[in-house]
Fold this protein.
Amino acid sequence: MNLKLQQYINGKWVEANSGNTRTIINPFNQEVIASVPEGDESDAKAAIAAAREAFDNGEWASTPATERGAIVRKIAEFIERDKEELAHLESLDTGKTVEESRGDMDDIAGVFRYFAELADKDGGELIDSPVPNSISKVVREPVGVCGQITPWNYPLLQASWKLAPALATGNTLIIKPSEITPLTHIKVFELMEEAGVPAGVANLVLGAGDTIGAELSSNTDVDLISFTGGIVTGKKIMQAASVNVKKLALELGGKNPNVIFADADFDIAVDQALNGVFFHAGQICSAGTRLIVEESIHDEFVNALVERVKKFKLGSGFNEDTQMGPLISAEHLAKVEKYVEAGVQEGATVAVGGKRPEDPELQKGFFYLPTIFTDCTTDMSVVQDEGFGPIITVEKFRTEEEAVNLSNDSIYGLAGGVFTNDIAKAERCAAKMRMGTVWINEFNLYFPHAPWGGYKQSGIGRELGKLGMEEYTETKHIFQNLKPETLNWF
Ligand code: NAD
């Protein structure tokens, strides 16, 4: 592997202070693919100090926005140039198909390009002043030192949503990938160095959440925390971040409803219901794992899903015909198994799957069969909890109102979908569904100019779009009196 396999702190590639390392394994066969430094609080502190100095000396924040944008654009170009290598690394590390990783790399380059273009488009605005002979203007400035923490499911994609806007707006940063999927983060730091990101501006620390992640969240030299991951971790970070009232952006999980009306185009709805869940073995925050199907087509719809699911090809992400790879780790596989067991105990019916595959070729990998649960009700844990695996639960509804109520019966509010050919009905449902994204006759489509984030416990703030840029800025009002006079008040 032609990678530095080190941390990147203050413009230097470094081992962990402790000298400790962690082995990274391929979830398809458990082979060791790399050994990387296992940093701890002391490495995080060194990176925070570097980012603080790089912000406080003012050089990066005062670099013309057009120049910062040009550097971010170069990163996009280098990602395109090295797309095959990046896609290969991502698939090795996560087990997802290389075809999917290639798609991720296209999306990632698009994210860097989008924020590069936005870099010099906000010169502030003049606002009306109530005082004659005065100027009142609103400007945006970088927040400062940003801590960024990413999950293992879409490692570099999630990182790109944070790195690109933070750099474009003149912040400095420390990013910590999930400890089990650091490889594409390392590669992109090589590309950022090549693109000319100055020393100290962007720092990469590798290691565990409860050491490095906790330090980033609680250190008073960090001004903002942007976190993508699970709800339990998100709550811990909120608490830790209160120490200096850090700005917070949280992208947490989802248990996302997908409502199928009887008047939808049947074949398209079946196809999209599958696509909405089984990419990357269902390990997607926005997976449409909660199908809510109109009673009159329920049985036919479930049968069609089951027939398609039985034909899925599981295997190595590097085989051209593989449709679904393994889950990320033994620990996660065990969690998914427990989640399914709970569903069975609560009375849901396994229509297909519900166990590990028996194929001898898959025994070394963390595989789980694509699973569909029927006879589900809202009180079941499989309907309420995020399984984060290849699992769909199916509920029935009779009326539009019931469909909306079921969709909203959740602590989450990340995303949802509606399939129908009645456009007015679709718009009525979209208006009432309490979530950050609603897709109509579509599921799981992202693009850089549309904001992404959750209602309710799915998070705080937005990534992507103009709002994703604004998260990394403070807003300042500057008022100037051009003709000051004594007030004679006192
Ligand atoms: P996780 O919460 O276990 O870990 C996420 C990151 O947080 C990792 O880097 C981890 O090391 C770190 N971390 C763990 N404990 C920490 C602590 N105490 N302080 C600070 N950081 C800590 O999540 P995961 O298992 O890696 O990812 C899966 C979760 O991510 C799912 O719940 C999924 O829905 C969510 N996710 C959400 C989105 C979104 O856009 N809303 C996108 C992708 C994933």
